[in-house]
């Protein structure tokens, strides 16, 4: 019986594959028979590589599965498939080509072939017009490179593949170039290839002649093509699984076996949740560019001579603005080019205004930024425009002045602040935010009535000249740390335990000194005196104390939190005095590298409604709505006769008016009659006098 089954093995490859995996030495002869069969079919196939062969497909997959059992015999098997795909891969039958690629993936997963050979081949096969094959190759390339760099960075493989991808990005085939770029972007997002070489290879794709490749590279640097974040979904699924398991454990019969299963499953879910997830790049790719100045100049030259769609031009201008703002580049030709688009009727004008604000920084000449502010003021902040346009213009001016305050002139600022009394809430809020900004940065540019209370540390809030840089020798607010240390020492000393000497001192002092009692009237009268106490000598002492602490201590996060808390208390307490305290950090400092579009589009869109607007909304709400009325009571018997009450409702009013009066008089109570009689008597009595 065993010999009979053994004779059937040549026709049953899955069974033979299973038996070989169990004991390869026992079925060596059967494998050699199938190997010779494969070699003969391969020779026939090479005569006509465009034909299909189901027999060859099954033999390839069989050998790929059991090749690790006979490494000496199958040593040339992977290279033979690679050579065949290199020479005839584009013209081959799709099913047979997919089978060859799957066989190579299987052999590569078992470590029987070098990764460079397979990966370079798969990059070339991106040129095939087979979407299913390209998807499979993309998945394998990403997972294989991830596994290569899982334990440590394999620089040799990475460098050779990056050089090969650089040539693929310049390939004439649009699909292959775009797929290669997608692979590099995906590897960067997964923190596998997050080095400068990968980023600078992707920069070359921004100048590709293929529009799709160019758009993908621009979206990568702008961060708008980020993958969907499934973290929330996975977390919710995990929580649902935990609840389901706990509910099943509480409802089902309690046994040790089930309890252990539930505990094990809960532990696995917790471990899965604790696994670290790849962090998003968050614009860090822009920081890794080797030559941002040259890159920005090339992009500007490209967009000036570009015939692309307006959306692509917008992406290029956005990337230029971010490069200029983040790296503080000097690109003088960009600002006149951007001025041409700053018109209220321009499409996506709010984004263009954010680009203008993004490209401003302290090193740009103020005269150049002043022209942009004047263009915005002349085109947007005029009475001929709508309220929304004026508010957007004021917000854009504010965002530009945050980054380049020297560009604002006193005359223009005083004109813009006149909008603070506008009836439109959006314009009024935008103008007041501009006033608040210059109260902090440079109050001298404002009208005297708009400057507000004087600042205690006014000399620290003055805007420095163009190109000037002030180097600090201490951390501002560090003197508060010494005060906290003194308070802690006092708490330790006065923790409730007193010595005999202290008791004696207290006994002597209880009746020996007068205690000053402060009243609220004294505080009100001494406000100015408290302000005058902060003389230059006191400030110099605080400065020396801050320098000493900054030079002798390493400040931790807790220390900075304490400093921030003390500064907030100082600001709150300063509101009660005649002078307001200067904030420790600039209220409008550019904490984010990217200008938020909401800061410019921050327009209050709900103005006061006039009568016509209110009436139109009322009439619009009535359309398609049933009329308000009391619901009719349904009769128990629809065919019954009407009651006397129902009949009286249908009669004319003149027929029932007298009966209603008589009915009302009859029903008047004795108390009502008394009140009526009293009123009539009082009325007659008043008439007599």
Number of helices: 35
Overall average residue pLDDT: 78
Radius of gyration: 42 Å
Termini distance? 140 Å
- Tell me the strand percentage band: under 5%
Range of helix content: 55-70%
Can you tell me the overall shape?
extended
Low-confidence stretches: 225-234, 275-282, 495-533, 575-591
Structural class: mainly alpha
How would you characterize this protein structure?
There is one protein chain. The chain has helices spanning about 1-5, 15-20, 30-45, 55-65, 75-90, 95-110, 115-125, 130-150, 155-170, 175-190, 195-205, 210-220, 230-250, 255-275, 285, 290-305, 310-325, 335-340, 350-360, 365-380, 385-405, 410-415, 425-440, 460, 480-495, 500-510, 520-525, 525-535, 535-550, 555-575, 595-600, 610-620, 645-650, 655-665, 670-689. With about 700 residues, it is mostly helical.
């Amino acid at each position: 019986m065993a010999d009979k089954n053994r004779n059937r093995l040549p026709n049953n490859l899955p069974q033979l594959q299973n038996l070989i995996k169990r004991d390869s030495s026992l079925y060596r002869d059967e494998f050699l028979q199938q190997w010779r069969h494969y070699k003969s079919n391969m020779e026939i196939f090479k005569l006509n590589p465009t034909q299909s062969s189901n027999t060859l497909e099954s033999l390839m997959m069989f050998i790929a599965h059991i090749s690790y059992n006979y490494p000496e015999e199958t040593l040339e098997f992977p290279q033979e498939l690679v050579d065949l795909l290199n020479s005839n891969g584009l013209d081959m039958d799709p099913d047979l080509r997919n089978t060859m690629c799957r066989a190579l993936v299987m052999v590569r997963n078992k470590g029987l072939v070098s990764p460079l050979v397979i990966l370079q081949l798969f990059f070339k096969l991106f040129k095939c017009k087979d979407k299913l094959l390209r998807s499979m190759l993309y998945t394998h390339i990403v997972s294989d490179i991830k596994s290569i760099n899982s334990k440590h960075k394999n620089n040799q493989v990475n460098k050779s593949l990056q050089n090969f991808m650089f040539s693929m990005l310049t390939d004439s085939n649009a699909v292959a170039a775009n797929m290669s770029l997608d692979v590099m972007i995906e590897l960067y997002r997964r923190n596998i290839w997050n080095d400068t070489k990968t980023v600078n290879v992707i920069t070359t794709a921004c100048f590709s002649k293929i529009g799709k490749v160019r758009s993908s590279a621009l979206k990568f640097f702008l961060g708008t093509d980020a993958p969907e974040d499934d973290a929330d979904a996975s977390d919710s699924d995990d929580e649902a699984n935990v609840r389901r398991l706990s509910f099943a454990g509480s409802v089902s019969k309690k046994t040790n076996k089930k309890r252990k299963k539930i505990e094990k499953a809960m532990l696995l879910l917790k471990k899965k949740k604790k696994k670290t997830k790849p962090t998003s790049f968050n614009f860090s790719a822009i920081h890794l560019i080797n030559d941002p100045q040259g890159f920005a100049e090339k992009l500007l030259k490209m967009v000036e001579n570009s015939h692309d769609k307006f959306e692509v031009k917008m992406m290029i201008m956005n990337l230029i603005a971010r490069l200029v703002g983040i790296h503080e580049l000097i690109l003088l030709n960009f600002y006149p080019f951007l001025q041409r688009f700053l018109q209220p009727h321009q499409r996506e004008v709010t984004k263009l205004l954010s680009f203008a604000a993004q490209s401003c920084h302290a090193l740009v000449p103020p005269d150049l930024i002043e022209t942009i502010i004047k263009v915005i003021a002349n085109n947007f902040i005029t009475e001929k425009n709508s309220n929304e346009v004026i508010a957007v213009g004021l917000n854009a001016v504010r965002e530009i002045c945050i980054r380049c305050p020297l560009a604002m002139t006193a005359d223009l600022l005083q004109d813009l602040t006149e909008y603070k009394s506008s009836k439109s809430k959006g314009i009024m809020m935008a103008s007041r935010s501009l006033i608040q900004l210059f109260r902090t940065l440079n109050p001298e540019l404002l009208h005297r009535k708009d400057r507000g209370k004087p600042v205690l540390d006014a000399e620290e809030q003055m805007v420095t000249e163009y190109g000037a840089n002030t180097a600090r020798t201490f951390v501002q607010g560090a003197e508060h740390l010494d005060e906290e240390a003194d308070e802690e020492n006092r708490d330790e000393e006065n923790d409730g335990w007193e010595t005999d000497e202290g008791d004696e001192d207290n006994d002597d002092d209880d009746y020996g000194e007068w205690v000053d009692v402060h009243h609220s009237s004294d505080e009100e009268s001494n406000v100015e005196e408290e302000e005058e106490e902060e003389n230059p000598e006191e400030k110099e002492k605080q400065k020396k104390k801050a320098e000493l602490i900054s030079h002798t201590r390493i400040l931790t996060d807790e220390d900075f939190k304490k400093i921030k808390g003390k500064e907030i208390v100082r600001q709150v307490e300063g509101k009660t005095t005649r002078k307001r305290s200067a904030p420790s950090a600039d209220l409008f400092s550019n904490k984010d590298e990217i200008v938020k579009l909401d800061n410019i589009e921050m327009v209050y869109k709900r103005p006061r409604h006039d009568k016509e607007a209110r009436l139109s909304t009322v009439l619009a709400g009535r359309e398609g709505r049933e009329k308000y009325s009391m619901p009719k009571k349904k009769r128990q018997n629809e065919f019954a006769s009407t009651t006397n009450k129902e009949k009286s409702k249908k009669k004319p009013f003149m027929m029932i008016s007298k009966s209603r009066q008589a009915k009302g008089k009859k029903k008047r109570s004795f108390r009502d009659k008394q009140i009526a009689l009293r009123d009539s008597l009082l009325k007659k009595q008043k008439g007599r006098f």
